[in-house]
Amino acid sequence: MSKTLKIAKPLSNAEEARIQQMIAADPDAPEATDAELAQARPFADAFPALAESIKRARGRPPVASPRQHVSLRLDADVIAKFKATGKGWQTRINDVLKDAKL
Question: Which superkingdom heads the taxonomic lineage of this protein's source (predicted)?
Fold first, then answer.
């Protein structure tokens, strides 16, 4: 697949007319009349139950006690050992610090 962006050349008047003619001739997608457009309502107003059922939350759900971002300098060998244990190494460091009797 090419990564270069191909810019489409502008349509000629004849090509535009042919495309508009094909759109107008499509029996499955008739153009809306002015009367139909005047009666149009937003989807959520026309189908409130359906709109509510497909609404989805954005982002992560809130947590009871969110973690705070800090900058902490640790020895390279400490970080290497925790990273070697796989995914979740930062959580494991957090657990070790919580369990420490300070």
Answer: Bacteria
